[in-house]
């Protein structure tokens, strides 16, 4: 892979998009240039397939499609479902984000920062669900989930996340510098 290729990240929704723009963009360099984060959950399969075809035909461009594992029982089942839905996607370009993206958010909090935010410090976030995450939102952030997510990202540690979440570690090994 030539240095500083363009990487497009296709994500399900706004929480994934926020995470990619705030955390991944900085850590993709020097190997990748994050050209765009594209939410696809509300797009039809043909739109996504055409987009992937266009990315693949561009010089020095690549893509990754991120998806929560839920509602599928395992990563293999999720990959199969995505491959059936999107004809142009290659299975090596699918990153299944554990159960849900919220697990990646919590994975980046060390013990000190978890205490600072008033949230449980997880040894592993592999099985954290959106419901658990939402239940853990401190009272001072109860009026704005987005503010809570941004506060986590403000003090986020990629190294901590690599140690606490297997799917994040897999992504980091494959794509982060």
Please give a structural write-up.
With 177 residues, this protein is of the alpha/beta class. The protein has one domain. It is built from nine helices and four strands, in the order βαβαβαβαααααα. The chain has a four-stranded parallel β-sheet with strand order 2-1-3-4, sandwiched between helices. Strand 1, helix 1 (14-28) and strand 2 (32-39) form a beta-alpha-beta unit. It is globular. The chain starts with a strand and ends with a helix. 30% of the residues are buried.
Overall residue-averaged pLDDT value: 91
| SSE topology string | EHEHEHEHHHHHH
Output the structural class: alpha/beta
Question: What is the rounded Rg?
Answer: 16 Å
Please tally the helical runs, counting DSSP H or I stretches of 4 or more residues.
Answer: 9
Number of individual domains: 1
Strands ordered across the widest β-sheet: 2-1-3-4
The CA-CA distance between the termini, in Å, is 13 Å
- Coarse morphology: globular
What is the structure about, briefly put?
Helices cover 48% and strands 15% of the residues. The protein has 177 residues and is α/β, with parallel strands linked by helices. The chain is globular, with a radius of gyration of 16 Å.
Question: Top keywords for this entry?
Answer:
9 helices; 177 residues; alpha/beta
What topology emerges from the helices and strands here?
Elements: E1 5-11, H1 14-28, E2 32-39, H2 45-57, E3 61-68, H3 75-85, E4 94-97, H4 102-107, H5 111-117, H6 130-135, H7 145-154, H8 158-164, H9 166-175
Parallel strand pairs: 1-2, 1-3, 3-4
Helix pairs in contact: 1-7, 8-9
């Amino acid at each position: 892979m030539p240095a500083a290729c363009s990487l497009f990240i296709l994500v399900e929704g706004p929480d994934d998009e926020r995470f990619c723009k705030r955390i991944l963009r900085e850590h993709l360099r020097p190997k990748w240039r994050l050209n765009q984060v594209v939410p696809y959950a509300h797009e039809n399969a043909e739109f996504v397939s055409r987009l992937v075809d266009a990315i693949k035909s561009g010089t020095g461009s690549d893509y990754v499609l991120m998806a929560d594992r839920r509602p599928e029982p395992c990563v293999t089942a999720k990959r199969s479902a995505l491959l059936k839905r999107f004809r142009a996607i290659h299975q090596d370009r699918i990153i299944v984000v554990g159960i849900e993206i919220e697990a990646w958010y919590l994975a980046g909090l060390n013990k000190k920062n978890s205490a600072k935010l008033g949230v449980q410090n997880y040894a592993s976030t592999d099985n954290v669900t959106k419901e658990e995450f939402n239940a853990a939102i401190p009272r001072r952030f109860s009026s704005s989930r987005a503010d809570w997510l941004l506060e986590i990202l403000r003090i986020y540690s990629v190294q901590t996340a690599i140690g606490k979440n297997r799917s994040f570690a897999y992504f980091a090994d494959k794509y982060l510098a």
